[in-house]
Amino acid sequence: MEPKIEISSLRVKYGSKEALKGLSFQIMKNEILGIIGPAQSGKTTLLKVVNRTIEHVPGVELNGMVSIDGVDIFKMRDVHALRRRVGMVAPLPVGLPLSIYENVAFAPRTGGMNNKAKLDVIVERCLTQAALWDEVKDRLHTLGTKLSGGQQQRLTIARALSHNPEILCLDEFSIAIDPVTTMRIEEVLKELRSSMTIILVTNLVQQARRLADRTAFILNGELVELAETNLLFSDQAVDQRTKDYVGGIFG
After folding, report:
1. Interacting residues of 69 by C-beta distance below 8 A, sequence separation 6+
2. I need a labelling partner for 120 at 20 to 30 A (CA). Which of 74, 83, 223, 244 fits?
């Protein structure tokens, strides 16, 4: 496998608090990388770095390098083009105050797509990929905010897919949805892996175990261990802190 993302000596500080402490590792093309660790370990910060939304945080200090396909993302002049390549799904669904159809069509329209037939294809494709099409195809012009919580989260995923991202970042996507919907989305992610690289931040260690090809354990801003998931969740984990965390001793 070839690397899609390379992270080198990445440090992030919020004032006097160091959120990431010199992380260095690679994320491979077309893999699901699980990232686990207790709250406040720096997992969300890492995702914000990858799509450069970290720059919206006042007073943040960042050092190190992150590259996508060998190009330093902090030297990319068009940050909007980068964010089209890196889709982001937040912990809680954030539906735009638009119809279901326009929620998904929003990004393509912003990018200059105005052809109705092509937009129809994009909307159906993305809603299908997000396992939502069959539930909403007869009410596409109702408000997206009227959907259930699980449906809104899938709508958020469809919206993230609408600009054909190469990388999909998911930050605790299942925190506010029921187990059945969670499993449906997990099946979707397994299918999407063939066409994109997925970074899955989760506090549910068993979710990482089910989905991730490899898993990284981050603790207090440090990368403790990164290994194939089946090894990380076995007695072959190298660091005792990893064994304790995945075993439920702390976290």
Report:
1. 4
2. 83
Residues sharing a CB contact under 8 Å with residue 247, sequence separation 6 or more, in sequence order? none
Domain boundaries, given as residue ranges, for the chain: 3-246
Quick check: 25 pLDDT over 80? yes
Q: Assign 188 a pLDDT band (cuts: 50, 70, 90).
A: confident
For 3-246, give the CATH class.
alpha beta
Distance CA 232, CA 243 (A): 8
Q: What is the value of pTM for the model shown?
A: 0.92
Q: Give tens-digit pLDDT for 27-55.
A: 999 999 999 999 999 999 999 999 999 99
| CA–CA distance, 105 with 44 (Å, rounded to integer) | 27
